[in-house]
Design a protein that fits this description.
By secondary structure, the protein is α/β, with parallel strands linked by helices. Helix content is about 30%, strand content about 30%. It is built from 11 helices and 16 strands. A hairpin with a 2-residue loop joins strand 14 (about 265) and strand 15 (about 270-275). The chain has helices at about 55-60, 85, 105-115, 125-135, 150-160, 180-195, 205-215, 230-235, 250-260, 280-290, 305-315; strands at about 5, 15-25, 30-35, 35-40, 45, 70-75, 75-80, 90-95, 170, 200-205, 215-220, 225-230, 240-245, 265, 270-275, 295-300. Helix 3 (about 105-115) crosses helix 4 (about 125-135) and helix 5 packs parallel to helix 6 (about 180-195). Strands 1, 2, 3, 4, 6 and 7 form a 6-stranded mixed beta sheet that branches. A 6-stranded mixed beta sheet has the order 8-9-10-5-11-12, sandwiched between helices. It has a 4-stranded antiparallel beta sheet with strand order 14-15-13-16, covered by helices on one side.
Length: about 325
């Protein structure tokens, strides 16, 4: 039975918000007490290995699955209690588009629009034309869908989701299986829609896609959110990697040790781990120069997102196709 845990006042700055959201199948929690916070106007990546609970979460956001417990707010409206008020403002493409293969792209959209009881038939043709224009398919609108590339089918699916004005667009693995050209087409479209003020929520297991397109993200692992925030926040780590290239390896290590930085020689490169805000990079370089260390190269960087997420989840992510 659904247990109600209403959220306090939903934030006006959030497009999607969940509190202690749980979905159980028997004794297994596919989604385990997650708290999503999706800012309005963001391109929000929902990242995690396959089977981590991403699609189950999306189904609950759309009212396709009932939570076991917890609360969901979409555009400030409670789901499922106010789902009829929220969902008209939400477009979704979940588990790939399904079309009539021997109808044209335009005819497919016309059929889908006519199935919407709230859609005004007098303005249907204009809505279909506008949706085709937004996804760049006007030139192929009369072509049969079976002749579309996979990327074109994905764009047609997004067009279907945009037949009515939307504030949120939810996309489940939108570039999965696409070739590089199709991936670029969908990525460009997503950026364009976001520039128009639509909040884009993208579920993916492809780290490279998330890094290239998203402004914010949450990382799922085994039903739990293990990290959440802006890309910049999640790229940050308290431990930075120091790499120093110099012919004066022993002198450099001694100088770094004098600064309470534990350094080591790794294949002719001086490496160390430095606590963020412990000491400024310019102070380190100044000490090395004063000690007479010749510097051929110096970097002090946070670990890559891939390294950060593997440390959080204990699992790898696909970083390339």
């Amino acid at each position: 039975m659904l247990q109600s845990n209403p959220i306090a006042e939903p934030s006006a700055e959030l497009a999607i918000e969940t509190t202690a959201l749980v979905k159980s199948f028997g004794t297994h929690n596919a989604v385990d007490s997650i708290a999503l916070t999706v800012p309005r106007g963001s391109i929000f990546g929902f990242l995690g290995p396959n089977g981590s609970g991403k699609t189950t979460t999306i189904r609950m956001l759309l009212g396709l699955a009932e939570p076991t417990s917890g609360a969901i707010s979409v555009l400030g409206r409670s789901i499922p209690n106010e789902i009829n008020d929220a969902l008209p403002h939400v477009g979704a493409l979940v588990e790939g588009p399904a079309f009539y293969p021997y109808l044209s792209g335009r005819d497919n959209l016309t059929r889908f629009d006519s199935a919407d009881s709230k859609a005004d038939p007098k303005t249907r043709a204009a809505r279909v034309e506008a949706a085709l224009t937004r996804v760049g398919l006007t030139h192929a609108s009369e072509k049969k869908v079976h002749a579309y590339s996979l990327g074109m089918k994905q764009r047609l699916g997004i067009a279907n989701a945009l037949l009515q004005p939307r504030q949120i667009l939810i996309l489940d693995e939108p570039t999965n299986g696409l070739d590089p050209q199709g991936t670029r087409e969908v990525r460009t479209l997503i950026r364009d829609l976001a520039s128009q003020g639509i909040t884009i929520f993208i579920s993916s297991h492809l780290l490279l896609e998330i890094e290239q397109i998203c402004t914010h993200l949450a990382v799922m692992s085994a039903g739990k959110i293990v990290a959440q925030g802006s890309i910049e926040e999640l790229s940050f780590s308290e431990i930075l990697n120091l790499d120093l290239r110099t012919p004066d390896i022993d002198k450099a290590i001694a100088t770094l040790n004098s600064l309470d930085i534990e350094a080591r020689n790794e294949g002719g490169v001086v490496r160390a781990n430095v606590i963020h805000n412990f000491i400024a990079p310019e102070v380190i370089v100044e000490a090395l120069v004063k000690a007479g260390v010749k510097i051929q190269g110096f970097t002090l960087d946070a670990p890559k997102l891939e390294e950060r997420f593997v440390s959080l989840t204990g699992e790898g992510f696909d970083v390339a196709r």
